[in-house]
Write a structure and sequence with these properties.
By secondary structure, the chain is an alpha+beta fold. The protein has two helices and nine strands.
């Protein structure tokens, strides 16, 4: 009986820890959250969000786009450098962070887009292109 209780307790703890990790690195859209001590926002969905001046106060601004410039979402990024190590999963095409000035290594994965590694100076704004993702935006198929 003791072995069953211990096993159940360890299994429950492992499952709970896994859920906590998943919740920690997933940032809700349009809501600042603190991850790894860094204020982070996922946004950029919709014209109103893109025109909101409150996002200008974030020294790091990444935009994820596809082959024809369409915004992409569902990106996972890891930012390291200057004592910072932040991982986040965003649904919107923008990732904003209040990072101290410096140079950072960024590792990104975009659903259906693949993987990219880049170096970024902060403050800064960088567009990250995934040429294998996205389709033709605004084009209508011809019936002929």
């Amino acid at each position: 009986m003791k072995i069953q209780v211990i096993t159940a307790t360890l299994l429950g703890s492992a499952l709970f820890a896994g859920m906590a990790i998943a919740q920690t690195d997933f940032a809700p859209e349009n809501t600042p959250v603190t991850i790894g001590g860094i204020e982070t926002v996922c946004d950029g969905t919709g014209l109103e969000a893109r025109q909101d001046t409150k996002w200008h106060g974030y020294p790091m601004h990444l935009e994820f786009v596809g082959k024809d410039g369409q915004y992409l979402g569902d990106e996972k990024i890891n930012v390291t450098g200057n004592g910072v190590n932040v991982s986040v999963h965003c649904q919107g095409p923008w990732v904003l962070m209040k990072l101290p000035a410096g140079t950072y290594q960024i590792s990104t994965d975009v659903a259906e887009g693949g993987h990219r590694d880049l170096t970024m100076k902060v403050p800064g704004h960088q567009i990250v292109r995934f040429p294998n993702a996205g389709g033709a935006e605004g084009r209508v198929a011809s019936s002929q």
